Amino acid sequence: MKRRDLEPLILDTSLQLFREKGYDNVSVREICEACDITKPTFYKYAVTKGDLLELFFYRIAGNTDDTWDDPQIQGSWWNCLKHGFCGFLTSFLSFGTDFCMQLFIQNVLSEQDRFRVDPDFRSRMAAVIRKAQASGEILDDTEPEQLYDVIMSTMIGFCAWWILNEGSVDVMDEFLDSLQALCEVPA
Fold first, then answer.
1. How many Å apart are CA 91 and CA 168, to the nearest integer?
2. Phi/psi at 90 (nearest 5 deg)?
3. Residue 4 — very low, low, confident or very high, per pLDDT cuts 50/70/90?
4. What are the angstrom distances between the C-alpha of 94 and each of 81, 137, 152, 180, 181?
5. Which CATH superfamily is domain 1-47 in?
6. What residue ranges do the domains of the chain occupy?
């Protein structure tokens, strides 16, 4: 198998095992066996299981559909913004509270930001924000990259709230209300 094919295999297999057994109940050895690779091969891609969580979060944005930033399909730049962020949030929440809690724990333990997102998603989202500002669909005139960072931080806060409440709160509606307020969407 080619090297570039192994990272998705390792990540997808480990995510499946984490969902089935729980993060704490899966060992690197089990991941290696399920992928039919050796531990040294695994360690070329991830030093720890926590590194897999970082790769997972990085890839979430890729799970949104390809039309999220097309105003012809979504109907407006504001709808593109909502669709992109809600797709991201939906992907994150789909992994359940146990797995998502591990991402937060690993983020604290590692003392580094494991909440990094694919730069392509960030730049596409900043472009959508810029166009929504230019069209008057959102009134907040903060630099698009800064507004994106504020929105992502708000979303991560809602994810933490959801985890702490063991998934029993509807964060999507609350997040959408906050997104609308942050962007200053005209009535």
1. 17
2. -60, -45
3. low
4. 20, 30, 17, 23, 25
5. Homeodomain-like (1.10.10.60)
6. 1-47, 61-183
